[in-house]
Amino acid sequence: MKSDSLYVDLHHVRKCFGKDEILKQLDFQMIRGQVYGIIGNNGSGKTVLMKCICGFLPVTEGTVIVGGKYIGKEIDFPESLGVIIETPGFLASLSGRRNLEILAGLRGNLTGADITAILHRVGLDPDLKKPVAKYSLGMRQRLGIAQALMENPELLILDEPFNGLDRHGVEEIRTLLLAEKEKGKTILLASHNTEDIQVLCDHVFEMDGGVMRKR
Ligand SMILES: Nc1ncnc2c1ncn2[C@@H]1O[C@H](COP(=O)(O)OP(=O)(O)O)[C@@H](O)[C@H]1O
Ligand SMILES: [Mg+2]
């Protein structure tokens, strides 16, 4: 393994909430351009792990390095990151498009045409005026995926991205994620559906009580 291809490197990561030890001395590496899946029961620590990689939660012990930089020390968040964690929060009174425009405006490097294109890619109507409050769970999930992909990040952290989608929706989003994989993205995917994981992932791990095992 060449060290320059190492993109995410967790060393001896522990995460505790009070006396509860959620992640136990966890070591986990991701190679650039590969897709990693985590399966595991509810409450096993998948989301906490993802939040630690994203810099949303500080680790109790150990180190998280993404793209060669220490998270929480050298940088607060990974530099080129797209993320969907659980059900994404949007401004409910605004349309999906307006939500993406606001998020894109925070960085200011996307055009209206880019937003139209990403809404098409996730299977949402770019001209839909309906507020997000009236979206189904599947539509919100699609919007969440649009938000994660729209700035073309190198690293994708996708927590239960198939939540709320019907069979057809799952197929569409799988195809879309396969296209991201083809583009060379580094992807971490958590799901409790083994089939989704097996289709997409180069490496599969099982989280069990805060310990990760290769499958
Ligand atoms: N902010 C928090 N404060 C306290 N406990 C938490 C917090 N976030 C998660 N936990 C606990 O950590 C454990 C793992 O949660 P989580 O990572 O969400 O599980 P999974 O995503 O595998 O279903 C659970 O017991 C949960 O209650
Ligand atoms: Mg979770």
Q: How many helices does DSSP assign?
A: 6
Q: How much is the radius of gyration in Å? A: 17 Å
> How many extended strands?
10
The largest beta-sheet arranges its strands as 6-7-8-3-9-10
Strand content: 25-35%
Q: What letter string, H or E per element, gives the SSE order? A: EEEHEEEHHHEHEHEE
Bound molecules: adenosine-5'-diphosphate, magnesium ion
Instruction: Profile the largest sheet.
Output: 6 strands, mixed
Give the terminus-to-terminus CA distance: 20 Å
Residue-averaged pLDDT, rounded?
Answer: 93
Enumerate the spans where pLDDT stays under 50 for 5 or more consecutive residues.
none
Please specify the SSE layout and strand pairing.
Blueprint: E1 6-17, E2 20-31, E3 35-39, H1 46-54, E4 61-66, E5 69-70, E6 81-84, H2 96-107, H3 112-121, H4 137-149, E7 155-159, H5 167-182, E8 186-190, H6 194-200, E9 203-208, E10 211-214
Parallel strand pairs: 3-8, 3-9, 6-7, 7-8
Antiparallel strand pairs: 1-2, 1-4, 4-5, 9-10
Helix pairs in contact: 2-4
The site of magnesium ion (MG) has 3 residues, from helix 1.
Please describe what this structure looks like:
The mean pLDDT is 93. The protein has six helices and ten strands. A hairpin with a 2-residue loop joins β1 and β2 (20-31). The two termini are 20 Å apart. The strands form two sheets. It has a six-stranded mixed sheet with strand order 6-7-8-3-9-10, sandwiched between helices. α2 runs parallel beside α4 (137-149). With 215 residues, the protein is an alpha/beta fold. The protein is globular and about 50 Å long. Bound molecules: adenosine-5'-diphosphate and magnesium ion. The site of magnesium ion has 3 residues, from α1.
